[in-house]
């Protein structure tokens, strides 16, 4: 059975106090709701990670993730944070290859392979992001484009390694724009990506990989998106900054 996952990506938002308040609210709401079959992940900026972890405590099905990690294990890389450091205080997920990092920090498919290796070597679950820009969608070559992102970054991993990776399909034109992909568009791409993974790693493995949708998901559209057979959850940006909205999305399965 594939895991259902809703991961919040705070991006570069919130002061220390705001982050503590948001986390406390989410923890309390999730405890009240007692949601059993959905994994919730909070991915705050680096400086929030440890205090957020303390607030999460032993809350059932609530986990800590980072928005990024270094492609190196340790050493003279000023300003970087290693996957080992993240794991050492209890982070269990890490977002890799978000389109903002690909675009603004020029992260290549090859670099993302190295980051994914570091995550896996330190027991973190990579949430590997992929997705096409608007012009590629409009040209109708979006499936080939996104498949190639997976091929170039992930297809040299062993089946065992691949089985530990979560995919997040995030069409760039839908991120932070309020323009969500329709649930049919999401399903079409998720099924294509699962087929692509199956072609390399086999159907059984592909059937067990969680593929999340990201891009202007909110409490109003999450139910429809999550009703699709190949949509196993969401990577949530803007709506993860409001506790009620975020928890409503978690409850949308
Ligand atoms: C994201 O940044 O991963 C994202 C999906 O953002 P938003 O939900 O705001 O579109």
UniProtKB/TrEMBL annotation:
Broad enzyme group: isomerase
This protein's name: Triosephosphate isomerase
Catalytic activity: D-glyceraldehyde 3-phosphate = dihydroxyacetone phosphate
Function noted in UniProt: Involved in the gluconeogenesis. Catalyzes stereospecifically the conversion of dihydroxyacetone phosphate (DHAP) to D-glyceraldehyde-3-phosphate (G3P).
Subunit structure: Homodimer.
GO MF assignments: triose-phosphate isomerase activity
One GO cellular component term: cytosol
């Amino acid at each position: 059975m594939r895991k259902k996952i809703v991961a919040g990506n705070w991006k570069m938002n919130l002061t220390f106090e705001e982050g503590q308040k948001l986390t406390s609210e989410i923890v309390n709401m999730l405890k009240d709701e007692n949601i059993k079959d959905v994994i919730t992940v909070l991915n705050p900026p680096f400086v929030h990670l440890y205090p957020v972890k303390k607030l999460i405590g032993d809350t059932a099905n609530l986990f800590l993730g980072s928005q990024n990690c270094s492609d190196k294990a340790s050493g003279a890389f000023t300003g970087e944070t290693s996957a080992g450091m993240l794991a050492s205080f209890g982070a269990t997920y890490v977002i890799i290859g978000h389109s903002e990092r690909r675009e603004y920090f020029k992260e290549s498919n090859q670099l993302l392979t190295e980051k994914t290796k570091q995550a896996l070597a330190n027991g973190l679950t990579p949430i590997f992001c992929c997705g096409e820009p608007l012009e590629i969608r409009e040209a109708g070559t979006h499936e080939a484009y996104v498949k190639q992102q997976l091929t170039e970054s992930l297809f040299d991993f062993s089946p065992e390694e691949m089985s530990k990776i979560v995919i997040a399909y995030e069409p760039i034109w839908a991120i932070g724009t309020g323009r969500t992909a329709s649930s049919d568009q999401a399903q079409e791409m998720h099924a294509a990506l699962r087929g692509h993974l199956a072609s390399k790693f086999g159907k059984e493995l592909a059937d067990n990989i969680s593929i999340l949708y990201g891009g202007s998901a909110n409490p109003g559209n999450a139910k429809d998106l999550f009703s699709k057979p190949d949509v196993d959850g969401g990577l949530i940006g803007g709506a993860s900054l409001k506790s009620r909205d975020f928890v409503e999305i978690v409850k949308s399965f």
